[in-house]
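Dear colleague,

Thank you for sharing your sequence with our group. We've completed the structure prediction you requested, and as agreed, I am returning the results in plain text so they can be pasted directly into your records. Please verify that the sequence below matches your submission; if there's any discrepancy, let me know and we will rerun it promptly.
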Amino acid sequence: MVFLKDGEMSEFPVGAAALEGGAMHNTAALRYLDELFRYAMVLTRSRTDAEDLVQEAYVRGLKAIGSLRPDSNLKSWLFTILRNTWLNQLRQVRAAPRIIELDTDEGTADLAVATSKDPHALYVEAQERDLVREAILLLPLEFREILLLRGSEELSYQEIASLLDCPAGTVMSRLARARSKLRALLLNVLPV
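Please find the predicted structure tokens below.
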């Protein structure tokens, strides 16, 4: 994207925008920052590690932007870089000594309370949301990953298949199994 007068943006093919002036336009890649962070949270299960992972993925993306074809899907490309960066970090961690981190309750101070809703309804919603998140975290990585990419990030089956380097049929199968396992975990916990 290129900014015009009065903050308007003009769409260019990704490769052309990326190569203009020899630098990537931050607005083109930064619009996926939240999605990448959510994906990194699923992979790492740690806010700090997710932030570091997203930062490293962007650094690598900036270095490799010249290799991006004009017809490429920037979002999928960035997700692939993030996942490959995470896999590389996993390999390094497995060879390194383990460090134990204390779990802190981050994020509870950031809860905003809507004044238009009943406090009990807000409490119930928060409890259900937490139960779903906890249930998702109990799933194996391949299922957590597929649920996030399809449900939250709304990537197509083909984009997910490309990202995970597997056939689209495998993506559909994993997604169905992930939903089934999640439903089974929640069946006894959430009220019907």
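Summary note from our side: Residues 1-25 have pLDDT under 50 and may be disordered.

Kind regards,
the structure core
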